């Protein structure tokens, strides 16, 4: 059973998400709240598997709450799935840097929300496919490249190639088609990349690639 905490300042959205989630045999809503301070407190108390987090909320916003729950240095990070509206997508990059495992649009179909929760709970990252490329392209310029050169990255040539395709917003299937390799081989490369670079998920891999100047 995947235990979910829903945090959104709009009661109707919280109720809608909870209804959709609780209708699934493998998902259960263990709590809900309307602000970041309560989200942090409830997450530490209830220890959910996934927090579905809004971005703009009164008091402590979703980005700050995410950083407290999943940011660098947090001893027991919680997986956070951020939900946003398209006209608020300027916050997405900051939420990913704060430690979120992925994001979805609020108007995504219920099936996509459920898939997102299961994906994040399983330890993978989720980027809404219809906006991934746009967001990556739009906000990559905000990431200051580190002083390291691409040659300092401890990856093979093929792993670097896969990393760059990940950072360009391609899915595993699209990477497989681009490189003419199997889907399972791509998964193996992704796993190796995350392990070698000590990254948690694909979201961190995207940020890493841009910070190292591997993609622009």
From TrEMBL:
Q: What is this protein called?
A: Two component transcriptional regulator, LuxR family
| Superkingdom as given in the UniProt entry | Bacteria
For the modification 4-aspartylphosphate, the affected residues are: 54
Alphabetized, the UniProt keywords read: DNA-binding, Phosphoprotein, Transcription, Transcription regulation
- Domain called Response regulatory: residue spans: 3-121
Q: What organism does this protein naturally occur in?
A: Actinoplanes regularis
Q: Name one GO biological process term.
A: regulation of DNA-templated transcription
Q: Which PROSITE patterns match?
A: HTH_LUXR_1 (PS00622), HTH_LUXR_2 (PS50043), RESPONSE_REGULATORY (PS50110)
Query: What one GO molecular function would you report for this record?
Result: DNA binding
- Which Pfam families has this protein been placed in? GerE, Response_reg
Q: Which residues cross the membrane?
A: none
The answer to whether the entry has keyword NAD is no
- Keyword Hydrolase listed? The answer is no
Where is the HTH luxR-type domain positioned along the sequence? Answer: 148-213
